Fold each of these.
Amino acid sequence: MQLNLSDETPPAGYERLLFVEDKTSGLRAYICIHSTACGPAAGGCRMWNYASQSEARADVLRLAEGMTSKNAVAGLGLGGGKSVIIGNAASDKSEALFRAFGKAVNSLQGQYYTAEDVGISPDDMAMIAQMTPFAVGLDHGDHGSGDPSPFTAEGVFQCLKVGAAEVFSSGDLTGRKVLVQGLGHVGMSLAEKLHQAGAELIVSDINADAIAQAQARFGASVCAPEAVFETDMDIFAPCALGGVLTHETARRLTARLVCGAANNQLATPDVAETLRARNIHYLPDYVVNAGGIISVAGEIHQAGPEYRQARLAGVAERIQQILIASRETGKTTTCVADEMVASIIADARAQQAGAA
Ligand code: NAD
């Protein structure tokens, strides 16, 4: 291992940006700590075939900041951070690469906890964990939390019911037309919950097997990926990619409620205004999809199942508060959520300053 760790100057508002290189294994990665105001930073590790180092840098900065918001609003006692490994998840993985990455995470001495994100499996995380205790989301061991997706789906489902109660004056989903975009780890689990709750499911995916499964198991009707914004629905649950809501798609969307797991659903923050102008209630993604990091936080804090259950219930309560505040103030739900985050972080900083 020839590990080289170089601190880069992060943008204003960020605490640390580390570029990691190991010539022996070919590892090239960024680790970013956005904020430790609320506690040690936590956020997944993504492996992606970035076109350039600067693209990876931009991604890690954006993702780390998002984790600060997500962890703060979920009340996890954790700050925000993220890491990205530059490489092809299908062909560039090796034990040496993950061990080198684990050593880099360990060098931060618990200021950053890593877990799975896109391109990283529990097996990869186990290799990272050979070099550091600050790797979580493990499939084994006394406190391993395993796959976070069922927790994410449960959180989304609870929020969706709260949103339905606000928009349709009833959280009863019987007969509600819900379009689930993306039937992956989270989307399929959410679809199952919606089916059990009596919703009329419409599903969309580029994976024919997933579609066939949803048709067979839930009697779902199918919508072609390009027809989502032409389809009649009550609720839209984006569980595939980020950036699906642009000004243009927001103008065509037939739903009155948006609640899904995908990160960064709004292509730009001001799409929230377009949605509100059309009286479409948007439930901020980083609040709604916190179930996964809640599961991981349970592992970090070595807490029992009651910790996860309480925090998951808290996610739906937060959404309720956000909807009420948005209704009363006329602000968008994203604006209310962002203000909530700012206030939680300011309180945490004041406490840190008081304790120092
Ligand atoms: P996944 O990779 O298991 O599933 C994604 C699904 O979307 C796949 O079935 C894929 O075929 C489908 N898809 C891709 N492009 C599509 C398109 N154009 N139209 C329709 N379907 C398309 O991912 P996941 O773990 O289920 O996560 C889903 C989303 O939720 C991601 O944005 C992820 O970042 C976010 N998220 C996941 C978790 C978690 O616990 N897994 C937590 C927070 C946020």
Amino acid sequence: MNKLFGTDGVRGVVNEFFTPIFAAKLGQAIGSFFGENSRIIVGRDVRVGGLFIKNAVIAGLLSSGVKVYDCDLAPTPAIQYVTRDDGFDGAVIITASHNPPQYNGVKVIDSDGIEISRDKERIIEEIFTEERFNRIQWNRLHESIYEYRVVNDKYVKAVVEKVDKELIKNRGFKIVVDPANSVSVLTTPRIARELGVKVYTINGDLDPYFSGREPEPTVESLSKTTTIVTSLKADLGVAHDGDGDRAIFIDDKGRILWGDRSACILAKYLLEKHPDSPRRVYTAVSSSTIIEEYLREYGVEVVWLKVGSVDIARAMKEKGDALCGFEENGGFMYPKHQFVRDGGMTLALMLELLASWRKKLSELYDDLPRMFSVKTKIPMGRDKAVKVIEVLREKYCNYRQVNIDGVKIIGDDYWFLVRPSGTEPLLRVMIEARSEDRLRKILDEILDIVRGI
Ligand code: MG
């Protein structure tokens, strides 16, 4: 059986993989899964194909007797928030998140606002493959779609309510927002303005072709944004991905903070904001260990999980003891708001933190442990990748290891992660070390092992 769902929904190139027929069948499978008369929100990001995919998915849903609430353009976290808060049975979001512009996809959200579990994905895949669609008898079909265009308003209000508006307003912040020409155009500048912040938006029109920049925040795609932050002498810049669940910050000196860096600072602030909260932070093995170092004195325990935001969100909800969760790509999860990544909420928290501590983001960045890092990938089949990992496990058997997704070795002044890619024939290698020399040595050692195999 073809595996439909990847790490985060069903994705593919528009009109090659994602055809109208495919989307309608997927809608039928999703509708059959949720069942007749279930209430489902359907929304999308700005991507090309979004319009026909949404309409095809709705066709499938209606055919299976679902009540469809169409919110159209909205960031993923806004739809997730409203799904849970307004008591819907689920949501279908047409998005390919950070992928290149020619991609689109479908994410299925459960009634708790989190992406459905892997088990439920499997059930939908089975319905799809075996074409066990629930085709409703003609006289039970719903003949209207409910327009539900209140999602962005409700979301903005919910985010703004969770921070101290007066405190932020009194600081007179000036920020640059880069929503990547997609749906956070509709929410993030509003959140900031409602908090009394002066906002300059770049890539601020809705553009399905992403001509402003690639939907993924990277050093290359943010090069103009960083320059604008410094030339406007802004307090910070924030850049989202295509569906607005990631927030990557740029400090007042124009430096990019990756998600594990900003998460250190945010987690420390949350300890202060919620002193009674459990001291547990959830993240994937691909995040830096500096979070442990930075928060050690506060007794914070870091729970390492395999790579994938859904697994982090589900683990946090299940255990119920998380201060926060995050991914190094800029996905930050604040459970008091919702368990999933939320770019707008992350910005609001960062503004409150800066207002409360009366510090510049660059000062906070400079306080973080300094590490040299390298991220690389080596083309290699899964069998060989597994062998490389076995050799490393053996070689570093006297060191602290996390064996959840490949192998992560944690030494005194370095850490590294070697894991097979989930989607491509690649070995992914991430190393961080206190000195360049140490970094080089570890990389050479891994490359030697690769050559030996
Ligand atoms: Mg995303």
